[in-house]
Design a protein that fits this description.
- It is built from six helices and eight strands; from the N terminus they run ααβαββαβαβββαβ.
- The termini are far apart.
- Strands 1, 2, 3, 4, 5, 6, 7 and 8 form an eight-stranded mixed sheet that branches.
- The protein is globular.
- The longest helix is centred in the N-terminal third of the chain and has 12 residues.
- With 165 residues, it is of the alpha/beta class.
Length: 165
């Protein structure tokens, strides 16, 4: 990918693409024809299983207003009490908080390249799949990766943070 390709994309996608390129990740972000603001929309656009979408859920840690990013499979729901047990009490994050802390709008929050580094947790359910797709900084942008790539790129621990099925 050359510098010109990075410039033609929205700023958030440029940040993600630059980080992926710097880390030697083999898959650059791709722009979808339609929005993928939800995991289901992304799965439908890509023709993959819902669980293969690595969705980013942002919480606000109550004691210090730090963003807490939980990355889980699109077919799972985050258990807020499990997250709180690992990082301290958390609350919901509104759109302004998400944008200010991550630099991304809801529906396009990438698991990396945030403007302020969040506390990050990776759900172990992601390891059910060989190939994942994650938001790439814009509701129309995604990138391909494997679970181990996610761990390497974020440096985050793997935990059980979803509602038991």
């Amino acid at each position: 990918m050359c510098g010109g390709e990075l410039q033609a994309r929205p700023e958030g996608v440029q940040r993600v693409a630059g980080l992926l390129q710097a880390q030697g990740h083999p898959h650059a972000p791709v722009m979808l024809d339609g929005a993928a603001r939800t995991a289901q929309q992304a799965a439908d656009s890509l023709g993959v299983q819902l669980g293969q979408i690595a969705k980013s859920v942002i919480f606000r840690r109550l004691r210090d207003a730090v963003a807490v990013l939980v990355v889980t499979s699109g077919d799972r729901r985050v258990d807020e009490s499990k997250v709180a047990a690992l990082v301290g009490p958390v609350g919901r994050a509104d759109a302004d908080f998400v944008k200010a802390r991550t630099g991304f709008a809801i529906g396009g929050v990438a698991p990396l390249a945030h403007v302020q580094p969040p506390v990050t947790l990776l759900d172990r359910e992601l390891w059910r799949f060989e190939t994942l797709w994650a938001a790439a900084g814009h509701p129309h942008a995604v990138f391909q990766l494997q679970p181990e790539d996610l761990r390497r790129l974020t440096g985050a621990p793997v935990a059980d943070v979803v509602v038991s099925s």
